[in-house]
Amino acid sequence: MAIISALLIAAVVAVLAGAMLTRQSVFTRSLEAEQLRIQGQWLLQGGLEHSRQMLWDARRKDVLTRLDQPWARAQVGAFAGRIEDEQGKFNLRNLVNRQQVDAEQLQSFERLCRLIGVDPAVSRRISQRVIASYVPPARYPMLRSLDDLSGIEGLDPVVLQRMQAYISVLPGPTWVNGNTASAEVLSAVVPQLSLAQAHGLVAERDSGQWFINRGDFVNRLRLPQVVVDAVQVGITSEWFRLQGQARREQRRVTIDALLHRPEDREPRVIWSRVGV
């Protein structure tokens, strides 16, 4: 009987010990996961601050915003990311100016959609959605990013992803930066400029012949019929998008942020999204 009791006690102790070890293992894994999450957050914050500093340093050194500046190079290491000039894209907010539809900007948007292969019916739905968000009385919430358009009929994820390279959503109307815009965007905002001519202009620019002002940009179009005051293309930018990730072991944390760099102040974060 004593032997049976001893065996029972040993079995109970073994079960309890196993349960305690299991709980301890779960706790340890949870603690490790939390530590990795915190480390990832710190890496993201470091990447964000480094990006802000690069943008500010570039602004203090040169009034021009160009693609050969340090901020335009991909960041690698514990934090990997890229900064994009959102003024090198067509800003959907330009479709509405002073609470009214801007007909010229609408035509530019439609031209751009044709150039990048967006169905005309879909482009009309996009412009209608944007206009309905900013012309009183607004029927939809204001847009924060292109992702807010994902529910539009006919706009599939592949097309939406393609649009990211050419179209932005900013808090207010902006000019396009001729030093960072693609040939497609430049051809869209300068009606007389063909896509082939725009490609030639961009190739010349990217070889190191950056535009120094709006007049320089218009002169190099070699289109006498284009009036300087009618071209809303500049040579500086205030709005940038940071997209990056930090990886610790098997855990990956991502960040997507919009940065505003005024002429006289350090860049600040307008909004950011962090994901795991």
Strand and helix map with partners:
Layout: H1 2-61, E1 79-85, E2 90-91, E3 96-97, E4 100-101, H2 103-115, H3 120-134, H4 157-163, E5 167-168, E6 176-177, H5 183-189, H6 195-206, H7 214-221, E7 233-234, E8 239-248, E9 251-260, E10 268-275
Parallel strand pairs: 2-5, 6-7
Antiparallel strand pairs: 1-8, 3-4, 8-9, 9-10
Give a description of the structure:
The protein is globular, with a radius of gyration of 26 Å. The protein has helices spanning 2-61, 103-115, 120-134, 157-163, 183-189, 195-206, 214-221, and strands spanning 79-85, 90-91, 96-97, 100-101, 167-168, 176-177, 233-234, 239-248, 251-260, 268-275. It is α/β, with parallel strands linked by helices and 276 residues long. The strands form 4 sheets. Strands 1-8-9-10 form a 4-stranded antiparallel β-sheet. It has a two-stranded parallel ribbon with strand order 2-5. A two-stranded antiparallel ribbon has the order 3-4. The longest helix has 60 residues, at 2-61. Helix 2 packs antiparallel against helix 5 (183-189) and helix 5 (183-189) packs across helix 6 (195-206). The relative contact order is 0.16. Helices cover 44% and strands 17% of the residues. It has a domain at 2-85 and 238-275: GSPII I/J protein-like (Pantoate--beta-alanine Ligase, Chain: A,domain 2, 2-Layer Sandwich), CATH 3.30.1300.30. The protein is built from 7 helices and 10 strands.
